């Protein structure tokens, strides 16, 4: 099998296409969640905590000989904001998967019904067969 044919077989596999669609939708969903966190949730949290913008929060490391503006910073606010983004995305995915599972349960095939019991004549013939086998053995 040639390299091109093997790549075509790999690239057009159903799982790869599903994964690609998921990544594109995930990237678009990330923008929505980032806007939600940046423009709605973080300002509310900032208002509750006295106007603090957590995205800009940082801790300056004191380095002797450097001006205050040149000192390195540990940006814990960005980590906090990314953590909130993660929690929102995880919760939204949980709700989507829960809804999908509920829909699948509604449309799931209940399975094959239990077969009807055999008629009386079939039961009688089976009893005769079993008795003949028992007498021969």
From TrEMBL:
The chain crosses the membrane at residues 36-54, 74-97. It is found in: Cell membrane. Belongs to the MscL family. It holds the Pfam family MscL. Gene3D superfamilies: Large-conductance mechanosensitive channel, MscL, domain 1 (1.10.1200.120). It comes from Posidoniimonas polymericola. The keyword Cell inner membrane does not apply. Keywords: Cell membrane, Ion channel, Ion transport, Membrane, Transmembrane, Transmembrane helix, Transport. Channel that opens in response to stretch forces in the membrane lipid bilayer. May participate in the regulation of osmotic pressure changes within the cell. It is a multi-pass membrane protein. Its main location: membrane. This is Large-conductance mechanosensitive channel. Homopentamer. The keyword Membrane applies. One of its GO terms (cellular component) is plasma membrane. InterPro entries: Mechanosensitive_channel_CS, MS_channel, MSC/AndL, MscL_channel. One of its GO terms (molecular function) is mechanosensitive monoatomic ion channel activity.
